[in-house]
Amino acid sequence: MAWTREQMAARAAQELRDGFYVNLGIGIPTLVANFIPKGMNVKLQSENGMLGMGPFPYEGEEDADLINAGKQTITQLDSSSFFSSADSFAMIRGGHIDLSILGAMQVASNGDLANWMIPGHMVKGMGGAMDLVAGVKRVVVVMEHTAKGQSKLLKECTLPLTGKRVADLVITDLGTFEIQRRGDVRMTLTSLADGVTVDEIKAKTEAEFEIKLDGQQSMAS
Question: Is the CB of residue 154 less than 8 Å from the CB of residue 204?
Answer without folding.
Answer: no
